[in-house]
């Protein structure tokens, strides 16, 4: 799956997990497992990767991650709220210490004025820390480029989260 840049980011994220003695999990919708694939393409990744949830349907998001039906009905699958609940759910339903979640519209169909093709919401959850959510508008680059950019951004978020010293009271 990995191009050179994605492979480099996956290695860097896994190294950060290793240095922090953390296991990682993913909750993926629009990427369909590409983030976990990038990580598991790296030899030795089993020491830092717990599991990946591929939750393409709303039902899967609810059943596997505990995303609330009310969240999906009120905000939609592609929203800050859903991305945050996906990340929290991946953490809760795994043995991971950090979870990366993505939900978006890769196209070519499915976009709207409010939620255009290329919109992706990212969630990052860590034990005992607030969930971090980010929005990216990649534009209508095409399905494959949107998904690949999503993988890269999710891994970069993980790297940045683990590069900051853990400050606990």
From TrEMBL:
Record-linked InterPro entries: CinA-like_C (IPR036653), CinA_C (IPR008136)
Gene3D superfamilies: CinA-like (3.90.950.20)
Pfam families referenced in this protein's UniProt entry, alphabetically: CinA
Domain CinA C-terminal stretches: 7-157
Designated name of the protein: CinA family protein
Source organism: Aquamicrobium segne
